[in-house]
Design the sequence.
């Protein structure tokens, strides 16, 4: 089972940023209002993600590390329409198989917290407030071939920050902080959706973009699309979310790009933040363990909706 987990880890865990993404996903699932990420050496030496969410009862701590153990799917119908971010209990088991992992957690009403060391299985009392802290040390220490593929600490840190940025854009109701080597690397306090975009991507992103909002059949779209100046500066900043989950999708990208080209005769990638809400039964999120790809039941419908929304947003700005 250890080997199976390590193979699964190859799919889920590519670098420290993948660990950060999974741990922040879990913290959000737990209803956290504040999430703090502490990194050492770009996350390679240590990743600590602290939240103030619901916590894990001590008897469930060992379960959290077991493969396919998830507290988030109650029946098969839910599996079809997973509204939470998790990929069916793979992440923690996979991460634990390629690192030195420990969990400390305390639930509401518990007299104190508990800490579980994944390697030794030792469960000990821990003094802490409500919530969960998961610490991942020495990523890939047992798989030196994988560790060799990691880049410089600065590069790994940048990927970790980008991973939190993706969550932060879509969850303005949650506060985020990232510390590296004891220094604050980034911090986003709770804010309105628009203010959060400004905080994360800069005031110039707001100034250089137009709001977008549309409803098309089973879809709802909100976000911002950048004007040409922003495309020049930030054309690589394309954030697409489906039901709160960061994704990359060729049809969405093409819908936005073709609309931008048609209205502004641009020849660059536009910058945008695009949040799509869709009936969960019309999208399959379990295409890949990293969850970055989705499969729409009707891709053309989504393509058209995105295209029309972007055209409408840009046409207004030219009038
Ligand atoms: P999944 O998120 O798909 O359920 P994970 O392997 O990421 O699978 O996590 C396994 C389980 O551990 C979760 O289902 C949840 O019960 C528990 N868990 C993990 N992280 C947290 C957290 N920060 N707060 C509360 N529970 C957590
Ligand atoms: Mg998870």
Sequence:
């Amino acid at each position: 089972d250890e080997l199976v987990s390590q193979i699964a880890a190859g799919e889920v865990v590519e670098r420290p940023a993948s660990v950060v993404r999974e741990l922040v996903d879990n913290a959000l699932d737990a209803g956290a209002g504040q999430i703090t990420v502490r990194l050492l050496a770009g996350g390679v030496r240590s990743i600590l993600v602290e939240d103030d969410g619901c916590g894990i009862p001590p008897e469930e701590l060992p379960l959290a590390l077991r493969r396919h153990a998830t507290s988030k799917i109650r029946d098969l119908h839910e599996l079809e329409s997973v509204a939470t971010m998790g990929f069916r209990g793979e992440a923690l088991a996979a991460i634990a198989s390629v690192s030195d992992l420990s969990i400390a957690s305390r639930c509401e009403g518990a007299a104190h917290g508990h800490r579980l060391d994944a390697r030794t299985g030792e469960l000990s009392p821990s003094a802490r407030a409500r919530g969960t802290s998961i610490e991942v040390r020495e990523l890939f220490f047992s798989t030196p071939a994988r560790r060799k593929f990691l880049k410089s600490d600065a590069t790994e840190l940048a990927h970790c920050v980008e991973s939190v940025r993706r969550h932060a854009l879509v969850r303005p109701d949650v506060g985020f902080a990232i510390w590296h080597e004891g220094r604050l690397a980034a911090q986003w306090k709770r804010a309105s959706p628009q203010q959060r975009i400004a905080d994360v991507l800069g005031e110039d992103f707001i100034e250089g973009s137009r709001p977008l909002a549309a409803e098309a059949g089973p879809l709802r779209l909100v976000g911002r699309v950048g004007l040409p100046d922003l495309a020049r500066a930030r054309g690589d900043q394309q954030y697409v979310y489906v039901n709160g989950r960061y994704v990359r999708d060729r049809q969405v990208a093409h819908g936005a790009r073709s609309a931008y080209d048609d209205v502004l005769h641009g020849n660059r990638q536009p910058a945008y933040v695009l949040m799509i809400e869709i009936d969960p039964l019309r999208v399959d999120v379990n295409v890949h363990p990293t969850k970055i790809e989705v499969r729409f039941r009707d891709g053309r419908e989504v393509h058209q909706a995105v295209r029309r929304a972007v055209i409408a947003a840009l046409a207004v700005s030219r009038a």
Notes: The longest helix spans residues 299-318. The chain has two domains: 2-188, 202-318.
